[in-house]
Amino acid sequence: MDQNGLLRLGIFAAILAVMALWEAVAPYRPKEVVRRPMRWLTNFGLLLASAALARFTIGAAMIATAIWAQENGFGLNNLVGMPAVLGGIVTILVLDCAIYWQHRLAHMIPVLWRFHRVHHCDVEFDVTTAVRFHPFEIVASALYKSLFVLLIGADPWAVVIYESMLSGFALFNHGNVHLPQSLDRALRKLIVTPDMHRVHHSSVMDETNSNYGNILSVWDRLFVSYVDHTRTNDYDMQIGLEEFRDGKSQSLLGVLWLPFRQP
Ligand SMILES: [Zn+2]
């Protein structure tokens, strides 16, 4: 593994450990619908399957694209010659907005929803939900993000920082944790908090189709998809998808096959 990969893995493992510890000490929703070992096997199994598929297909597509753009003077940043900090901020803003739209389109376009529903059929909501994605969705997302890296002419280091933020925020905002309400209110003016993102995992479809943001909460406000809270309450709300609550929608092999079957 190269230096960038090791750095990203280290940051990911550190944030995962902090969130898992936080959940163990002060879990918000104590109820367990599916036993934890089964969910961990499924969710971490998907993470390993995605890592393996990415390694043998796209590899480090985003970094390779950024290096190619830099060497060939391609993309906004390389044409204009932005200062490094400004180029980094533009990269984070553009990629976070692009991911917002990728996520929103994954809910709107049926074939994309088939893959994205693997993430949503988790009947619990905790830090492991953050890694529960079908490997094909992970690969498609990396190719999609690479297009924006090319257009921005993003610096390779800005890509490493953005990717670390993307996974770090996903681990944070899927945490089965609860911030004091005043802190949550202050933070969610700018970033996505666990209480804000939990609404997105509600079984009520118009709540599922809301709060698509990952890092910044501004996109949901700007593009009118922000929902402040669930109709029931955060503590008792039902998580997951109504039509995929059976055992074969929860096992590792079941979720790998989920995009290709009817409910
Ligand atoms: Zn979603």
UniProtKB/TrEMBL annotation:
<protein>
    <submittedName>
        <fullName>Fatty acid hydroxylase</fullName>
    </submittedName>
</protein>
<keyword id="KW-0443">Lipid metabolism</keyword>
<dbReference type="InterPro" id="IPR051689">
    <property type="entry name" value="Sterol_desaturase/TMEM195"/>
</dbReference>
<dbReference type="GO" id="GO:0016020">
    <property type="term" value="C:membrane"/>
</dbReference>
<feature type="transmembrane region" description="Helical">
    <location>
        <begin position="6"/>
        <end position="25"/>
    </location>
</feature>
<dbReference type="GO" id="GO:0006643">
    <property type="term" value="P:membrane lipid metabolic process"/>
</dbReference>
<keyword id="KW-0560">Oxidoreductase</keyword>
<dbReference type="GO" id="GO:0012505">
    <property type="term" value="C:endomembrane system"/>
</dbReference>
<feature type="transmembrane region" description="Helical">
    <location>
        <begin position="80"/>
        <end position="101"/>
    </location>
</feature>
<feature type="transmembrane region" description="Helical">
    <location>
        <begin position="46"/>
        <end position="68"/>
    </location>
</feature>
<feature type="domain" description="Fatty acid hydroxylase">
    <location>
        <begin position="89"/>
        <end position="223"/>
    </location>
</feature>
<dbReference type="Pfam" id="PF04116">
    <property type="entry name" value="FA_hydroxylase"/>
</dbReference>
<keyword id="KW-0472">Membrane</keyword>
<keyword id="KW-0812">Transmembrane</keyword>
<dbReference type="GO" id="GO:0008610">
    <property type="term" value="P:lipid biosynthetic process"/>
</dbReference>
<dbReference type="InterPro" id="IPR006694">
    <property type="entry name" value="Fatty_acid_hydroxylase"/>
</dbReference>
<dbReference type="GO" id="GO:0005506">
    <property type="term" value="F:iron ion binding"/>
</dbReference>
<keyword id="KW-1133">Transmembrane helix</keyword>
<dbReference type="GO" id="GO:0050479">
    <property type="term" value="F:glyceryl-ether monooxygenase activity"/>
</dbReference>
